[in-house]
Amino acid sequence: MTHCLLANVGACIHRPGMLLSRRHLASACLTSLALLGCSSPGAEPILLQMEVTTATPSMVGTVGGSAGNLLVVTRTNRARGPVRMEATGLPAGATVSFAPNPLPPSDAASTTMSIRLPSTVRPGAYEVRVRAIGDGIADGVRILPLTVRAAP
After folding, report:
1. How many helices (H) and strands (E) does the chain have?
2. Per-residue pLDDT tens over the stretch 66-96
3. What is the enclosing helix (H) or strand (E) of 115?
4. Other CB atoms closer than 10 Å to residue 45's CB: what's the count?
């Protein structure tokens, strides 16, 4: 059976806030297969994608303090190469770091995400979009709610 590589399309199948309908996703998959020379009958796509899981489903921090979470990045189908982490959607003035970053090449690797919340950060609810980025593989994305509380 012919195996074909399909990267960057399959990751959106179960992504929250998905923008593509199933019909459009199927069309995008078929188009990608054709562009990769995989249009022969019986071709079986091999999806290279990453999944980001967390130790806790949300984060809580205090102005002037920090928040964080342990992340595990799992790659499918023996995808290799380093993965770098990034986060967006932070409160204005907040900074994020990952240790380690980039993650080493392996099927699963963990990193600790730390968000520094200086005194200029406004209390409130935020959605932090964490992204694992690797070459030749669909990004892994996780949306993490962050609650920032006022300093006591």
Report:
1. 1, 10
2. 999 999 998 876 667 889 999 999 999 999 9
3. strand 108-116
4. 19
Q: Read off the tokens for 43.
A: 């071709």
Q: Per the structure block, which two tokens stand in for 21?
A: 């309908």
User: Are 51 and 12 spatial neighbours (Cβ–Cβ below 8 Å)?
Assistant: no
Amino acid in position 100: P
**What would the pLDDT profile of 45-59 be if each residue is shown by its tens digit?**
545 678 899 999 999
Q: Residue 132 in contact with residue 83, Cβ under 8 Å? A: yes
Asked whether 41 and 4 are in contact (CB, 8 A), the reply is no
Place of tokens 């399909």: 6
Residues 6+ apart with CB under 8 A from 109: 72, 73, 83, 103
Q: Any idea what DSSP says for residue 105?
A: S
